[in-house]
Amino acid sequence: MTLAGMTLARGASRPIYILGVNAYDHDVSAALLRDGEVICAINKERLTRVKHDTGFYGDPIAYCLLAAGITLDDVTWIVRNSYLLPVADLEDVFLSYAGSRLLSPRDRAQAARSVLYRTDDPRVVDISHHLAHAYSAFACSGFDRGAVMVVDGVGSHREDVQEEVPPDCDAEPYAREAESYYAFEGKRLRTVRKAWLPTTKSLVNDDFFMMHGLGALYSRVSSYIFGHWNRCGEVMGLAPFGRPTMEPLVRLEGDTLTLRPWDAELAHPYEGVSDQDWYHSPHRPHYEDLAWRIQEDTEQVLIGRATRLHAAVGGENLTIAGGVALNCVANGKILEETPFERVFIQPAAGDDGIAIGCALYGWLVLQGEERTWTMRHASLGRTYDEERITEALTRPAVRITSTRRQVPDTLEAVADLLAQGKVVGWFQGGSEFGPRALGHRSILADPRSAAIRDHVNIKVKHRQEFRPFAPAVLAEHAAEWFVGAHDSPFMLLATDVRPEKRAQLAGITHIDGTARVQTVSDETNPRLAALLRAFAKRTGVPVLLNTSFNDRGEPVVETPGDAVRTYLSTDLDALCLHDQLIQKRAIHRTLRPLLRRLKGFQQGMRHEALREAAAMRVLRAD
Fold first, then answer.
1. In 249-361, which ranges are continuous DSSP H helix?
2. Pick the CATH number of 141-345 from 3.50.50.60, 3.30.70.560, 3.30.420.40, 3.40.250.10
3. Which CATH number applies to 386-585?
4. pLDDT by residue (tens digit) across 298-324?
């Protein structure tokens, strides 16, 4: 009997668990699937508190196994991906590359003790990058058939790509994936076209920034404007402040992308270290115009690609994945300006979502099962019990600086605070998978006030003033406030705020009149929907400003302790942990500088102990 046959027979008597893993490079993550449904998923960064964390993947796997109450022995398949190299090949490289940035000393020690590191376990399978992205898009979309767009910075080498590639768009062995286009029906996936990044003349270790692809170019602009390749969301937010003063950086001519040479006009990279340096830079208008240019070019290329994909595939349904799929402005334009009538983008569309794609590939291809799961919400983290909530709220710093209110109805009390202009940390249920806060790890505020928008940017989030906030709106009222409002539970479609409503939504309306809308229903998030109704009862506005519950430069909070530390170290007015509501005393303002200094030390100590205990218990090789 084959291994697949054995797992099918075994699954008849007990659940089939499949782990998916995005390994080693940025946004390491894991997802656990049970009988075809993803029941838990987490980014490593939420556990280590290191944004976009890299390295060994033991921590997120341990988190998922502990949440499900199982061990690695209960898992049928472990499906992995790293865009750098197949994971097994990459782990061979680590044998002779002690200085790798991808493995800290702590990670190297953990990997060496793990049964998953350099394993010959037949349950462990590596798949290629865009194939994993594609499964993360279509296999949980709920569409029976349609098309898939995968567009990101860089994918697998041609020689490692596993899906069949049409002969007319093949490439040499060391070319890398840049874009992939597919058609699907049921669980069957067919490659329509691929675009490749050819091997590039570049500086050693600087290849990515020199590559000739859309995602790589957007990241190069991010590095140029802000000094970091992964601040593309900030580029998107800055774009409406710019003007069309430059020639296009990239054009789509038929099926060919033509990139403009990076010339002397683009010779002023940002070299400062603070927001004030950036704001006072003599090149700030140049950065704004460049952000406008790359955003406009990206929209036009993606609209052209999607239109040609529709001509090849037909139908109403499009799914999108890859880092470029997080560009909600471009996504909104694709929906409005191409023949596709419905677009699905799961919330972890970047490389963290690779874990979901790997798990679903394991279910559909390795296990040979059918599609059964549609992703309707992103709350895939564990739910912390009331004992953990109480533990976090009884710490000395909380007792000294805050009061706990006993209120008959927490939702009514929070709605009162929001209507009074207070800013509230909102911690409910399991954390969201992906970079967006969707009402489980959120900071909420009144959307009517531009002053509150500026306060949240500067005093709470400590980030640039130009960055916009998203609205959470009751789904049944979305069309009253936003033009062409579509179902958008994952905050990945931007649309126009209705002109007559913009004065009432000053806090979430960007300078160009748009907003990145999150539609909220009783099905997707009943508790947030109830809070929106309570707020609307007081204000007539069924909308809240919703941003991620984190300070600048930090991952979104995961545990009650994380939430309390961020609450204490910022200008949040209140914190709602499940049904516990706390507010600050006047003494907090005096103590806040000390609390901010203590925050990093406390996080490091606590999370180190947590992940060591969890990972060693379920992953060690005895």
1. 275-279, 284-313, 328-337, 354-361
2. 3.30.420.40
3. 3.90.870.20
4. 999 999 999 999 999 999 999 999 999
